[in-house]
Design goal:
Chain lengths: 140, 217
Amino acid sequence: MLIIGISGCGEKKTEKTSTPKPPLKTESQSLQLKEESVSEPVFVTEKTRKTYQWYCAQCHGIEGKGNGVNAKFLTVPPRDHTKAEYLETRTDEQFFEAIKFGGLSVGRAPCMPAWGNTLNDFTIHELVRYIRELCQCEAL
Amino acid sequence: MKKIFHLLISGWVLYSPILSNASLIEEKKCAACHRLSKIENEKKGPDLFYAGNKFQSAWLEEYLQNPVILRRTGTINNPYFLKGELQNLRQHPILNKNDAVNITQELMAITLPGFPEEKMNPLTKGQIAKTKYQFERTFGCISCHQSLNLAGKPRGGISGPSLVNAGNRLKKNWVANWLKNPKIFSDKSRMPIYKMDDETRLRFTQFIMTFKKENLR
């Protein structure tokens, strides 16, 4: 369900690249608004891939092509994580925020929930690297 | 002699219902697919060690006689979970009415302790509208769960259990506790953990309980 940077369910919003915006009033109390600093290098491990399969693949698909089992029931299709054309226009910070705080936090799809109470920051950073691996792209 | 007779009678009165129900669950081999305690290894069917907390008995009795598919991808331990709906899903065995009633009684007795009833007030129209918005947009529940849209049609993803009939299937207090701390019931879940404040959580609970198949159009 890690829909990265797509338009809202049924509506398209303007780009937002500013500081992290807490997506939910109700959750903002429990989520840290600033990401923890990551002192150690982040690599994609087998555990990262399993985490992606366990949570993200439900919507984004086993291979990250945006064709998970939920995809055809969503108003806005989940992001295809293999498409570099779009993903290279997004920063790693935007990926991180979308995963941690949900799609709405970066002005994108509300279908993408916030995973900040489920996954720790380091795991989210690993997932960001994995998405970069899937798209074989880096931020421009 | 009289004491022994009394002992036998009281033992029969106390234990016979449990033994007879337990033997029926055993006879039907429910434990082959369902965990009846949390310490067991994962199984392909939904956990039943908190069935009495979770299910409404009338729904369970009906389900056991006329099983319906609640999760079109299968349960989270289904190896085909991510590979598409309705693949390799096995229909639940169909029981006759008598067995369904008896097993339901047994399952209703399987509970986890420590869930006092939470007081919830009926939702106003405004609260329903607000919660519907949050259900679909703020929390994204609809991405994985089917529910009913304003026109009374099913709408939503299929990786989570359908909520179309949640109001008849689930107990309100269980929904409230699941939203509060799902790990009490399941160490593994594919659903995000939401740390809702109590007002939101109880409002969501009430909202989910409004989903009933009689509202399908």
